[in-house]
């Protein structure tokens, strides 16, 4: 699997110098590289999520461009969407598609699969603000 820093370099989103500065910072802080690059102002959250989507073989979406099925909203309890900061998007043949902002957090997919007795849960990536805005819209 290609590393996040390598993808940023290949896509010319950051320079070698910026990546090196972020990696040096990572040694001291222990933060994820993407978070450091955002904090340093080298990338935006959207840039990071697009790179992570490539790395995790999924896609980045802007939820304003996605038609969310109200039936799937009713399937997922508010406490789950609030706890895991996700928004359900659609349901097809035992497969639920959700939007979340952290592809390293595998718990939401497992929890949904178990609690809702689903065959599979897949994810796409969206920004935290986008997800929270849709949670407020659909679950307020």
Describe the structure in your own words.
With 140 residues, the chain is an alpha+beta fold. It has 2 domains: 4-55; 63-139, GMP Synthetase, Chain A, domain 3, CATH 3.30.300. Helices cover 52% and strands 14% of the residues. It is built from 8 helices and 3 strands, in the order H-H-H-H-H-H-E-E-H-E-H. It has helices spanning 4-10, 16-29, 33-39, 45-55, 70-75, 78-84, 107-115, 128-139; strands spanning 86-92, 95-100, 120-125. The chain has a 3-stranded mixed sheet with strand order 1-2-3. The longest helix is centred in the N-terminal third of the chain and has 14 residues, at 16-29. The radius of gyration is 16 Å and the shape is elongated. The model has no long low-confidence stretch (mean pLDDT 95).
- Helix coverage percent: 40-55%
Q: Tally the structural domains.
A: 2
Query: Mean of residue pLDDT?
Result: 95
Question: CATH topology of the largest domain, what is it called?
Answer: GMP Synthetase, Chain A, domain 3
What about the largest sheet? Answer: 3 strands, mixed
How far the N terminus sits from the C terminus, by CA atoms, comes to 39 Å
CATH architecture call of the largest domain: 2-Layer Sandwich
